[in-house]
Amino acid sequence: GAGVSQSPSNKVTEKGKDVELRCDPISGHTALYWYRQSLGQGLEFLIYFQGNSAPDKSGLPSDRFSAERTGGSVSTLTIQRTQQEDSAVYLCASSPLAGALLASYEQYFGPGTRLTVT
Amino acid sequence: GEDVEQSLFLSVREGDSSVINCTYTDSSSTYLYWYKQEPGAGLQLLTYIFSNMDMKQDQRLTVLLNKKDKHLSLRIADTQTGDSAIYFCAEIPSGAGSYQLTFGKGTKLSVIP
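^ inputs. structure came back:
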């Protein structure tokens, strides 16, 4: 079946502009995650959605970052007033039944959006 | 906090075995994972191991877990050029509602033809 998709695949923006990154998870997956992959920092967790529960935003680096998930499916990560240090690949992942007993929490990743802030 | 460490580079000859090592700090981690990332691509889940297992084998892949030393390894038998990629070790640290993966910085595997 279809995997996790993300759009756009590449985004170049000027410093100070806002950007929106989109993630379509695998159908039926209740959990959705955003990660950031940047040079020297590796992969960092940003935010996690599980069903209708309040999201875990503990990884968001600043209040310029926000995310929402509409209807328990598609998610949008918004970065306001972008800075050069926001340049990175933003990865989305989804998994089924997060929280279920003995669930392996397997996360399936999309191809990522490469964001370049000039 | 939790930390996952890996060596950054590994170079092997085609046909040899590759062993990628990882150490982690959270002894309560339930599952440990290996992901593969090819150039310009997202992360592909290769395999995972439950913490009550010592070993898991899946075709050319063998995962070994030493809980006492908090050491995880991935062995790739008969390494091929298509195995060239970055391999990430990851854990889900313990804690209520903690489902985010903590990744190592990745080991870049280069396979020499």
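The radius of gyration of chain B is 14 Å. Chain B touches chain A at residues 31, 33, 35, 41-45, 48, 50, 88, 92, 97, 99-106 (CB under 8 Å).
thumbs up if we can close this ticket
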